[in-house]
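Tutorial, part two.
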Amino acid sequence: MKKFKEKYRIESNRLKGWDYSNDGLYFIAIVTQNRVCNLGHIKNNILIKSDFGKIVDQEWHESFPIRKELNLIVYTMMPNHIQAIVEI
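Running the prediction step on this input gives:
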């Protein structure tokens, strides 16, 4: 494993030679700063969204109608991150 600034780092998982500006399906993950669980908490295997999590969820869904080049395929929110597959 290579080091960068004297720290180990994981090699990129990006496909060599792929132009990521191409249309396609993309998996994305958006993580909260410092992985703080401020989007909600889990109770009985269900995410109970915090007030902040409700705002994030609403804004996430409102972003697709105004960006016609994007199509939301699947989306999930967890206490400290969002995962989605979007189509460009």
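Residues 22-87 form one domain. In part three we will examine how such features are distributed along the chain.
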